[in-house]
């Protein structure tokens, strides 16, 4: 079962991706529930900030290949994270793959434990990181991003910080996030909302300009013969036909 756990302490709402049996893959139900939970946060005056975290050993494995969300729903979720009038802080203690990196990029602040690993695995199943490029391209280092998106290589937290996917990393992610959350609790809510608007303006420009085209591209790629072969190979735990 997909689900989103909820907890609240001193103005911070913690939302936990809680579908460890699918490695917190973004299924249609999970995307709907996370969208609803974030929308609640946007209208709750008791929420100063949101922490997005996970259960299990994986923050998010990307799109659920057995029950994927509609591309439009994924765009809506990512934009909601960017537009939310409360800061969204990612707390990562596990692995992040593909679409999960888009979720990470949409957050305002991201911290991870040093055991976490990351990979843009889209090219290895015959698709491209189309929709997740909306929050990703305005925020990440383009040269480093090119290598990782084109090869699908796995990389560590130090590289994720250098790339711009993470704000910070440490052995104890909660110790790293302690001063961050304390700072957010000391900030005026209106000031946080207006400051976030300034910081996310370029990201939202990308959504306004490119979301429709990238949604169409994602749909075409996921329904293509290479993608069918790549996803079948992934589910069957074998190399796809194009591997040399």
UniProtKB/TrEMBL annotation:
SUPFAM superfamilies with a match to the protein in the record: ClpP/crotonase
CDD domains xref list: crotonase-like
Pfam families reported in the protein's UniProt record: ECH_1
Gene3D superfamilies (UniProt xref): 3.30.300.220, 3.90.226.20, Lyase 2-enoyl-coa Hydratase, Chain A, domain 2 (1.10.12.10)
Family matches, as PANTHER family: ENOYL-COA HYDRATASE, POLYKETIDE BIOSYNTHESIS ENOYL-COA HYDRATASE PKSH-RELATED
Family that this chain belongs to: Belongs to the enoyl-CoA hydratase/isomerase family.
Protein name per UniProt: Enoyl-CoA hydratase family protein
Organism (species): Streptomyces hintoniae
Source taxonomy: Bacteria, Bacillati, Actinomycetota, Actinomycetes, Kitasatosporales
